[in-house]
Structures are given as C-alpha cells and as structure tokens.
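hey m, so remember when u said the tokens were messed up on ur end? i reran from scratch. heres the input so u can diff it against urs
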Amino acid sequence: MSDSTPANMIREELAERAGELDKEPLDVRQAEETLRRQNEYLTALHETSLELIDHLDKEELLEAVLQRAAMLTGTEHGYIYLLEPGDIEMQMRVGMGFFKSHLGLSVRKGEGMGGKVWQDEQPLLVVDYRSWEGRLRDKSLDDLHSVVGIPLKDRNGVHGVIGLATVKPGRRFKEEDIAILGRFAELALVALDKAKLYADVRRELAERKRTEATLRESEQRYRLLLESSPDPIVLYNIQGKATYVNPAFEQTFGFTGDELLGKQVDFVPEESWPETKEAIENMLSGQKIHLFETKRLTKDGRVLDVQISSTLYHNRNSEPAGNIVTLRDISAQKKAEIELRRYHDQLEELVGERTAELAKTNAQLELEIDERRRAEKTLRKREIELKGQSHHLEEVNTALKVLLKQREDDKKELGENVLSNVKELISPYLERLKKSRLNTNQKTLINILDSNLSNMISPFISKLSSKYFNLTPGEVRVANLVKEGKTNKEIAELLCISKNTVLFHRYNIRQKLGLKNKKINLRSHLLSYDS
C-alpha cells in the first residue's frame, strides 16, 4: 500500500493528468470529456477520502469505496472479498447490485475471479465471465459478462480483492477502469487500516476499562479484607510513616487513623527497640517477618504482648514502596500460658502426693491379694468337695429315676393284672347272669354293672374325674350313662333320682367340659375320650 495520504494522492493525480493533457494533442471535445471524467474521478476520490475521515465502521467505509468506484466505471455491480489472518478462504463481505445476494460467498486461492487475483496478486480483466475457463461452476453467475478484479495488497501481502462486473452484453471494462479501481483499492486498504486501528484502540480501551474495573474490584476486595480483619493491620511507606490503619488497630491500641496517618507510630516500648530494629533490617533485606513476638504500647500506656508478621510491597518499577504489618494481641494467651505453668506445677505436687498415696494403697492391695489367693485356694478345695457331692447326688438321682421307672412298670403291671383278673374271674360270671332268666330291671342293672366294670378298667372315668374337669361322683355316673346312650328318663330311673336332677347334672357337665352355648352333642364328645 502507498505511504501517501489521500490529499497527496489527489495532488499527484492532478499533476499527472495535467501533464498528460499537455502532451497529448486532443481536440476540444475530447479535452472537455477528459476533464469532466478527471473532475468526476478526483471528486469521487476527494469525497471518499472525506468519508474515510468521518466514518469509523469498516463495512460502511468499504461500501463507500465500492460505490464510488462503481459509479466512475458506469456499473452498479461490485464486491469486496476480505481475508482474515490465518484463514485459507476469502469471504465476500461487501456486495452491491448483482452481488448483494452472494454475500458470504467464500473462495480458496486460485478459485474464480477473487481466488485468481489472490493467487497472482495482480489485477485481472475478464471480457466474458461465462466463457472464462477459471470461472466458478455456479449457474447463478451465468448473467455476468465483463469482470475486473484488483488485489487489496500491501507489503504484508494480499488482504482481499475488490471487483466490478457488468450484466449487459457488449459493456466492457477498459484498462483505464483498472487504473481507477486500483486507486480505490488503495483507499480500501486505508479504510481497512483505519478500521483495524480503530478496532485496536477500542479493544485497548475496553481492555483498559476491564483492567481498571478489575483493579477497582480488587482494591475494594482487599480493602474489605483489611477492614474486616480481626487483627490490627498498619501500612507504612518506605519512610516508615503510616498510610493506613484498619479498625481493629484503632480498637486494639486506641489510636485513631487521623492521629497516625502520615506519621510514625510511636508505640514501641524502650526495651523492645533493639529486637524491633533488627526485625526491620531483616525485612528490608528481603526476609519475611512471621509471628515475631515482641511488645507494643497502647495509647493509654498498657503493654501488650503481640505477634508481628510483616512483608514488603513494591511499586510498578518493582522497587520497595513500603510494608504491611499485621499484629496479633497475644496478651491473653501469655496470661493463659503463665496460668498453665502454675497449674502444671500444682499438678506436679499433686502427682507427688498421689504417688505416695498410691504406693501405700499398693501395699494394702498386695495384702488383700495374698488374702484373696488364700481364699481362692480354700474355694478350689471346697469346689473339689462339691464336685464329689455333686457326683454322689447324680448317682442318687439316677437310682431314683430307676426306682420311678420301676414303679411305673409295677403300676402298669398292676393294671394289666386287674384287667386280666376282671376278664377271667368276673366277666364270665356276668355273661352267665345275662343269659339267666332275669327280669327287665335286673338285666338293666347287670348291663350297668358290666358297663361300670368296663369303665373302671378304662381311662374314661379317670379322665372325667381328673383335676382338669373336676366332676363330682354323681356327675361322673350321669356322664357314663349318657355315654352309654341312655335317655334322661332312663338315667333317672337307674340312679333313683328325678329327671330335673339329671338335667341339672347334664348342664354342669357341659359347663365343666367347655360345651356351654355350643352346638356339640354331649354323648359324641364323651365318646371321644375313649380314643
């Protein structure tokens, strides 16, 4: 791109055109036409240069350049391709007339008019785009005829392509149009440089604003941190004068900010000056002071035990600008340590006393242990004796179990003997009596006698008479006759009692057997005890 300003470009162009007019013998009409076109050309250059001054937006500037170039060459159709740094394709960023609908079209190096001008870095004039072998294979471009393209080029390479086209057959661009377009290409580069410079300035301003906002936020955050710190904090400049004290400092030492700012803080006791000076020298040599224990005075003369941490801070030139000092009041902690040591000494005394008591107690425990050992020996001896007695009892228990089993067997044998005797000594005679000539009443009594005899040797009577049912003898007799199927009238006659008495006994039997208010036949229930 030329280093000339737009005004210098116009003056050079006027001088060049004036020289050409002097050299070429033209008639008056040609001279007038040439002057008119030169005047239009220079006017367009001048107006475009003014727009470059007044406008800042890149797209608007490029549109103005393209419109002026199209107007001078007698067409309404033009475009500008731009190449962004690092891209491998150029994109149509500005278009007018036919190319307005092709905005965003991209080409690679060597593709179509734009790509060919990019590749060769030279102006290119095509008489008929439809028949040109380097055209893009896009049918929407078939209406194009004469096309001219100029590279937007400087010493750093091609930045884009500016082009004009016609859509009317027979209308062609000339070499003069290429020269005009070249001038406007230079203006386009000026517009691009201005837009880039403006964008860089805006970006720098935005970055500076963000940086300033970040610094303000950081300063506010650190000030809030200092203000909210529970530990006293004081900032000194390199001359040792206070430039800031936080509320905790004022509260702890009693000095106000107005009393301290711009002054040296006089709160170091005389006896603490040597160690304080040494700490300051170490800090100025680049060392950090961390939890340095010393003493400081309050405004009312009290001496506080403090821990001090301090470090240098630097200016933009990395030179020491002052230091930040954080103090922590450890007076209460020191008092607590003194109390702790005193308490520790008391504990030592108590431990000595307790040790003596424990020694005495241990002696007593040893005596008790000896007595316990003797008792354990006696207990073991007694345990052996008890084990012998337990063994004897087990043997006696075994013998008793054998005797009980023998008794059960004897009982069973007795029952079997009774049953055998009844069947062999009584039952035959009862059978003979049943077959003898007896009246009805006698036969009934014989049957009852036989039934009672059977019940005596069966578990039925014993079950009814057991503690679970607790039936009276009368109730047992009634239950036995009910089991035999006798009616209430027959039972009353056989037992010589009234029928109401029989009913009373039946009621008691059902109640004792748990059959009250249940629809269960009493005879069937009594028969179940034989199973």
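this time it looks ok to me. The longest strand covers residues 303-314. if urs says something different then somethings off w ur setup not the seq
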